[in-house]
Amino acid sequence: MKEIITFNPIESDKVVLPIQYNHMVQAMIYSLLDEELADFLHEEGFQNKNRTFKMFTFSRINGRYILKKDDGLIIFDGPIKLTVSSHFDDFSNSIGNSFLKRQRVQLGNNYLEVKQLAVEKENVNSEEIKVRTLSPISTYSTLYRKDGKKFTYYFNPMEEEFSETIENNLKNKYRAFYSEEAPEGEINIKPIGEPRLAVVKYKGFVIKGYTGKFSITGPIPLLQLGIDTGLGSKNSQGFGCVKLI
């Protein structure tokens, strides 16, 4: 389920945010959830062995903007739009009701009026779909240098590991959410055209991902989970949000 929210800035016609604003959107989302649900997702989440999933993702903020790179700011002029997506009905109901009830919400130092809320259910009916990214898809593995030190390697869409990592991630999410074995079958994802590298800082950590359009094949239940909760890793930090095309 996707909730597409349009906000109007209050007290000004501008929304001023740091260029690296993902943590502020995440904080706003948690602040809007029912307290018990927010605690569950933040402290526990859905678990499969040693992996934990929050089962939601969100898009980049859309709107007219200018960048002030020297100041590290992005300044939106006028309304802005955000998509929040989840496979977890309790999450979707909680965040949707909260947006409907509140006259205004806070994002960073900005107060925003909820101008419009649209709800969209994207149903996957085929084992082959095409999507476009609403936020970058990030896949990675922790590797070791010759000196034994760890480092994070981010896969690009041309590497086989990009698909393999997304497949393993979706199957782990499925096991965590449904408490049963994931459907058999491979996930294959290929870029349509040239994907673009995006480098994002989240709370001081550099995260790499890719934006663009992609063709994906695989079992329908896994594709549906990917459409709803996001593809790849770090979904609840604003990565992997996609839309059917």
Keywords:
245 residues; alpha+beta; Alpha-Beta Plaits; five-stranded antiparallel sheet; 41% strand; globular; RNA binding; CRISPR-assoc_prot_Cas6; antiviral defense; hydrolase activity, acting on ester bonds
Architecture overview:
The two termini are 16 Å apart. The longest helix has 19 residues, at 160-178. The protein has helices at 22-32, 35-43, 89-101, 160-178, 220-229, and strands at 2-9, 14-18, 46-48, 51-53, 56-58, 65-68, 73-77, 80-86, 104-107, 110-120, 128-133, 140-144, 150-154, 188-202, 205-217, 242-244. It is of the alpha+beta class and 245 residues long. The chain has two domains: 2-120, Alpha-Beta Plaits (2-Layer Sandwich), CATH 3.30.70.1890; 128-244, Alpha-Beta Plaits.
Number of folding domains?
A: 2
The mean pLDDT is 95
Query: If you compute it from the alpha carbons, what radius of gyration comes out, rounded to the nearest whole angstrom?
Result: 18 Å
What's the CATH C level of the largest domain? Alpha Beta
CATH architecture annotation name of the largest domain: 2-Layer Sandwich
Structural class: alpha+beta
**CATH topology label of the largest domain:** Alpha-Beta Plaits
Fraction of residues in H or I helices: 25-40%
| Sequence of secondary-structure elements | EEHHEEEEEEHEEEEEHEEHE
The count of strands amounts to 16
**What is the topology, as strand order, of the major beta sheet?**
5-8-1-10-9
What are the SSEs and their pairings?
Blueprint: E1 2-9, E2 14-18, H1 22-32, H2 35-43, E3 46-48, E4 51-53, E5 56-58, E6 65-68, E7 73-77, E8 80-86, H3 89-101, E9 104-107, E10 110-120, E11 128-133, E12 140-144, E13 150-154, H4 160-178, E14 188-202, E15 205-217, H5 220-229, E16 242-244
Antiparallel strand pairs: 1-8, 1-10, 2-7, 3-4, 5-8, 6-7, 9-10, 11-15, 11-16, 12-13, 14-15
Helix pairs in contact: 4-5
